[in-house]
Amino acid sequence: MTDDKRRRHSAPVVDGLGKSASRAMLRAVGFKDEDFRKPQIGIASTWSNLTPCNMHIDALAREAAAGADDAGGKSLIFNTITVSDGIANGTEGMKYSLVSREVIADSIETVAGCEGFDGLVAIGGCDKNMPGCMMGLARLNRPSVFVYGGTIMPGENHTDIISVFEAVGAHARGDLNLIEVQQIEKTAIPGPGSCGGMYTANTMASAIEAMGMSLPGSSAQNAVSDSKAADCRAAGAAALKLLEKDIRPSDIMTLEAFENAITVVIALGGSTNAVLHLIAMASTIGVELTLEDFVRIGKRVPVLADLRPSGHYMMSELVAIGGIQPLMKMLLDRGLLHGDCLTVTGNTLAENLAGIDPYPDGQDIIHAFDNPIKADSHLRILYGNLAPGGAVAKITGKEGTHFTGRARVFHSEEEAQERIMDGTVAAGDVLVIRYEGPKGGPGMREMLTPTSAIMGKGLGNDVALITDGRFSGGSHGFVVGHITPEAAEGGPLALVENGDTVTIDAVANRIELDVSDDELKRRREAWVAPPPRFSRGVLAKYARTVSSASEGAVTDKP
């Protein structure tokens, strides 16, 4: 068998007389004599039929495999898990959501490391499986390409999953009857693809493309389309080219590439989860990325995209006018992107963007620099006596930039949801949902159910919500999450009492509790740490190993 540098991982598994048993196993799954001389490309598929985000990815995985085979490789498809945030939100099951990111990274590393794949293509289509895939690729550091599964089409009357969540709150307020809610439920999710706004899935897909780990255009394609199938085939072929040039994730995922990702996320008005996931991905590849990098970049990058949840349009409508490539060209020409960053095409970002046409005249989805949605970042990193380790807010300006109110304290998401729906929560309240952090939850649940109920009940401009949990990319309103240290570790959030005055200032980037130091000291001395909620299983392991939200909530931090 030939000595091929592209086969540095597969050759020890299949070459030589001593590996006859290995070859015998592979012959059973379809290998021919000539296949043992080819570089092996693992296709990591996140297919499952439990969520529309991933229900079509089996077909996309086969396209990627065909692309790798046609380019001279030998593909092998394997699966990893996925969970559905849209289904689990508001339940105990949501505690497994962020945990699944780590399980996905672990499983991709485990399979590829064991089987000796020379290169990889990973296909993701939901909030946690995309950063999970990227973290798995980063750990392995073998020539790799990420493919986004694509966005869903709008539902009837321009609806999506957030429309359903908010309809529940609107019903509680009396604005919608049960038949109207049911009609939205039945028509908002018309088929395959990830949630349709600039929520976490589309945010992370855009960030990964901006980073250079996806082929140009991959983040802005409809899930069911010829362009998405072609993207998958091209990704399979690209993995072989990366092998030939020995280009690895560590060559692409540099600090400058992460800065490009942050810049594009801000311009698109993307999800707060991007902060958590990008820091985690950077940690995995060995790049030092902190909350302060988001502050620094946020001062010079405006929000330009009028996309949901705070805006009007959906991702499919951005796809129709050219996706994010023209936006990236705008940012590059403005000096806001590092054009010399290497990408999975083997070319630099600037070379990839050289022939990109501008958006068509008359479109109003992407604003010009002289007419931004917001002049600086909507992702606000807040500090203060409530969050000495930092907190993350998504403030577009539509909800205002300051809020002062009285604390209404809850020890779980469910408790808060009940009080929102029964009318207990009133204008002027700052809802405090604590013990929902990475360790305390455990799992750092999203607060999409309560934030959607707040919006549906018409309280979006009248109450704020703060938590050591996090938010869905579909959440909007005056909300602050990722508060660090979390309450379960004795952070100041654990010391807040009903009626305390809380002030959030998204201009000065402060979050303060109006309680004296002496009183806080007294409360701290009286505070008793809650017992772990789980003693065995994946949630218990996660709680024991997870880092803080400000460090990306990773479980393999050295």
Provide a descriptive summary of the structure in words.
Helix 3 packs across helix 10, helix 9 packs antiparallel against helix 12 and helix 9 runs parallel beside helix 13. By secondary structure, the protein is an alpha/beta fold. Strand 8, helix 19 and strand 9 form a beta-alpha-beta unit. It folds into 3 domains: 278 residues, Response regulator (Rossmann fold, 3-Layer(aba) Sandwich); 36 residues, no CATH class; 173 residues, IlvD/EDD C-terminal domain-like (Glucose Oxidase, domain 1, 3-Layer(bba) Sandwich). It has 21 helices and 12 strands. It has an 8-stranded mixed beta sheet with strand order 5-6-10-9-8-7-11-12. Strands 2-1-3-4 form a 4-stranded parallel beta sheet, sandwiched between helices. The chain is globular and about 75 Å long. Helices cover 38% and strands 13% of the residues.
Give the amount of beta strand, in percent: 5-15%
What is the straight-line distance between the termini? 40 Å
What is the CATH architecture descriptor of the largest domain? 3-Layer(aba) Sandwich
Q: What class, by secondary structure content?
A: alpha/beta
Number of helical regions = 21
| CATH topology value of the largest domain | Rossmann fold
Superfamily (CATH H level) name of the largest domain: Response regulator
Radius of gyration (Å): 23 Å
Anisotropy-based shape: globular
How many distinct beta strands? 12
Q: What number of domains? A: 3
CATH class of the largest domain: Alpha Beta
- The percent range for helix content is 25-40%
Mean pLDDT: 96
Looking across the biggest beta sheet, what order are the strands in? 5-6-10-9-8-7-11-12
For the sheet with most strands, the description reads: 8 strands, mixed
Low-confidence stretches: none
